[in-house]
Fold this protein.
Amino acid sequence: MISIDAKNIEYAQQMLGKAPKEINLAAVNAINRTITKIKTQTSKSIRKNYLVSAKNVKGTLNIKRASRSKLCGVLASQGSPLLLTAFRVRNHKRGPVKVQIRKQGGAKSVPGLFLGVSRNGYTGAMQRKKRKARYPLRIPYGPSVPQMFGAENVIGELTPLAEATLNERFLHEVEYRFRKMK
């Protein structure tokens, strides 16, 4: 949980002591601006670590904005695992199909994986459930965006940025409202 420093709150009370509603509005605006910035940074951070498109990431991120009555904002990710074809899949003429999910590691071969078209029209990576039988086919999945968002390296990168942005925006909003009152 990210919060505003106590020093910044005392500063706001000194500047806008006569108008406590303005302090509340400054906090709401600071929280909402911070959440918007962190949503953008989340997408960039996930794509820095994983080989996934921005469309797949941004589609799962949801914002609950702060209001005057509720000084709390939430950035959450909700979604199911992504198809393996959402990541990097390489099919060579000879050898197994290789899949790369993370940028740090190399591509790894998946036994029995092949690219093709199924009976019901799916085109992409598939595996046979039973090694010898032609059917049934299984469609493999990779990690979900919420799993990638919850990874330590992604959260560790976003937390200090969110803290700094929130405090910076709060001070900016307080000073803006103080200048407006004069």
In short: The first helix runs from residue 6 to 15.
